[in-house]
Design a protein that fits this description.
The protein is mostly helical. The protein is elongated, with a radius of gyration of 30 Å.
Amino acid sequence: MMIDFPYIQIRNGRFRYRRKVPLNLQSKLGKREIVIPLGKSEGEVAKQYAKVHAEAERRLTMTGVEAVASEQSQTAMELFRWAQGRVRELDPHSSAHSREVIAEGIARTYPLDDEGYPIGVSQRDAALLRALMLRDRQTRPEPSLEDVKRAYIREKVKGSSDERKKEQRVERVLGYVYQVLGRKDVSLNGGVRKTDAIDIRDHMLNTINSPATVKRYLNDLRAIFNFGIELFELSRTVSNPFQNLPVKMPVGGSSKDDRHPFSPTQLKQTRARVLGSAKKDLQLIWRMLEGTGCRLSEVAGLMVADVKLDHKFPHIDLVFHPHRRLKTNGSVRVVPLIGDALKAAQEAVMAAGDNALLFPAYGRQGGGEAASAALMKTVRKVVIDKKVTVHSLRHNMVDKLMLAGVPKGERDLILGHSSGAASEAYGGLETRIEVATKAVRQALGSAVS
């Protein structure tokens, strides 16, 4: 043989790349050798060697997640798509003979049974062998709920401000589906019937014992199924089993998940504790929450540029930021700054200096959760009622607005409860700021200095 490349072997008149896998990597790759066919002539070897050697190096340096360790959790559709891509890479000219040679090379990396068939074939290699031998005759697998879940997380969850929390919630709600059905290989096309959806709802009610939480989880499932039906173009054949699935709420509409507002005594004592012991930035966040009714993440994620102190009606401009998303489109709004909330905002801007973030320690992904955890430690030193949390300050503002006779449309304008229609009802930006400012002044009354 004239060529002198490492790892070249000739067998039955054909060249192949054969390389032993180090012992510490064999469990990850699921094989003891890497064997890749190179052709029948030295010319073919010279032409393909660089690409094949690079592929072997890539396999050996893949991480545990990227290597065969991850294949055990791959769905049938993921394996199918991966195998189709590998066939295109290995056999770009679609030659039946070359595909047969490649398949033979893969099979030879495994021990044979008494009848000469390879045993212990990994899922990926099995999928690749099917793709090589069946080619266009292979049927595309039906999408499963796992396929939908992974696509949903990739498209809807990744990159969000509370990515980890949302991903855990998706895993949790689909976990109830798998528990009831008793398996994870559930097809999107008919795998969950309406009767199954009812059983899943009842199972959640019995397990969670919170109708409000079950209702939210069913909304999640409804959204996930709608996403999958649209993604895989199944709207003509598949209906959403969670559509119009009711949850009976307790009389009066309350649930154990409802938060309580602070009582006057609780609020006075907690405020004194926060202002006396919490870090300065947490004190400022608390004061702004108390005087605006904003969500904690909305305030913690503010940019200095969002705080409009020189305006006729000082306010904060709540808009989407990469480090802090807002809950809904209706959450994009202007919120008045008056009284102590205005003073806190002024102090925060001064303290931020040249920093673009109003609260640098919390103006990041997950910053709202971190601020909440820190403030809750102080709250719990004063209030033991678990239904009273930092978010209860928002409920206090709701109560003040209602008691002051502020119309629902104006309340929604301030709190961001609407889908955006409330903003449209009050015309331009200047009008909305003025209307919202008057409403908050009316609600806070004598508390405004």
